[in-house]
Amino acid sequence: MSKTEDYQLMQQCIDRAVTLERHKGGFRRAIRKSLPHLHRSIQLPQHDGPLHLTSFVIRYIQAVPKWLRQLETLCEAAGVDFEPVRELIGHSFADPPERHPDEIGLAALLDDAYLAHRTLEEINERLQPACGIPLLPMDPMVANLVVRELLGETFANELDAICVELGSRYRDQQLGPDSIVAMILCRQKFIEAPGDWPDFAGEMEIGLRMPAMEADLDKLH
């Protein structure tokens, strides 16, 4: 399958899931039922938390093709092989559980999106020191931690192991001066605000309570 086909399939899966959620609202209903537990770790706006969290998850999933394509473009400019990463992530989206494609909702794609974002985060950490600037358009750390809470620690740990393995391929990546310059110049094409690296979750007013804050909250109950 070609690179274009990989991204098209990924986008089709995402578009179907978002459309299903807008028509049936299954993910939002599930979040509403589990909201008391989620509030122990995930900070949501006071007004209609399930809606905000659902909007966050939609944006988190929708960001995958754009971020993946951007990092692949940067790697190609520097002569770094990115195809195995794109193929694995594309396959994870295109090969969901055995259900009718039109019934694949946000929950079914959330683990695929987490796999993608965490892998991109790992690769960014390996390559960023070489060129001195983040290669992703936003800081995904808090967003990934929030989604980790939604997936559960056991499942998230399994996905993390895959992400670390993929990222380790870039650990000892040697970039010559020409490759570094090419990557930096390519990165500048994507920068809307030079020097700014916004928090992806923060822009959606989603955050995590710190352990110390959790302890203080427990004392109030």
Brief description of this entry?
With 221 residues, this protein is mostly helical. 68% of the residues lie in helices and 2% in strands.
Q: Could you characterize what this model shows?
A:
The chain contains ten helices and two strands. By secondary structure, the protein is mainly alpha-helical.
Strand adjacency order, main sheet: 1-2
Assembly type: single chain
Helix content: 55-70%
Output the radius of gyration: 18 Å
* Number of E strands: 2
Keywords:
disordered C terminus; mainly alpha; 10 helices; 221 residues; 2% strand
Write the layout of secondary structure elements.
Blueprint: H1 3-24, H2 26-33, H3 35-38, E1 42-43, H4 49-78, H5 83-94, H6 106-131, H7 141-151, H8 153-168, H9 177-188, E2 207-208, H10 211-219
Antiparallel strand pairs: 1-2
Helix pairs in contact: 1-4, 1-5, 2-4, 4-6, 4-9, 5-6, 6-7, 6-8
